[in-house]
Design a protein that fits this description.
about 170 residues; alpha/beta; Rossmann fold; six-stranded mixed sheet
């Protein structure tokens, strides 16, 4: 079996309002693709990132994380490139305790397994986190743009336009 090209990881709790947007986007994509695993992509949904996901990362060339980001006013979704430091093993942020960041997970895959792929984070502005599965109106309005960005990333359309992550 060959190496899959892409891994998409939707992060969030589907039972906490807008926090579930990452998993919801991947559920819709899985329905379009006819499954959670295809010849070129693998989809995962998680409540939070854990070190064990580094094993999924090493089997792909590109990783896109999809996650809600708290917003106080209306904003557009965006994708940022995740730049690994030259020596991720020496970075103090690599092993972060209870919650892992996407960049930490990629650095772990690079440090332990020599992974040399590309990583990006699709941030979807989120506004409400009550118990339940309903999304807020502003998030619902942002979903088409988030899907467009995800689809563009899958096609490789946005490689030259990704913003670099700040820190």
């Amino acid at each position: 079996m060959g190496v899959r090209r892409d891994l998409l990881i939707g992060i969030g709790n589907p039972l906490r309002g807008d926090d579930g947007v990452g998993p919801a986007l991947l559920e819709a994509l899985a329905a379009e693709l006819g499954g959670w695993r295809t010849a070129s992509a693998e989809l995962h949904t998680v409540h939070q990132l854990t070190p064990e996901l580094a094993l999924a990362v090493i089997g792909v060339q590109r990783v896109l994380f999809l996650d809600a980001c708290m917003a106080s006013r209306s904003a557009e979704p965006w994708i940022e490139r995740l730049q690994l430091p030259e020596n991720p093993a020496a970075s103090s942020w690599l092993l972060g305790g209870h919650q892992w960041a996407p960049l930490s997970l990629l650095a772990l895959a690079q440090s332990l397994y020599g992974w040399r792929g590309e990583g990006a984070l699709l941030r979807v502005p989120a506004f409400a986190f009550p118990h339940g599965t309903s999304f807020s109106t502003p998030l619902l309005q942002a979903l088409p743009k988030a899907k467009e960005l995800m689809d563009g990333w899958l096609r490789g359309d946005d490689r030259d336009r990704l913003a670099d992550a700040c820190g």
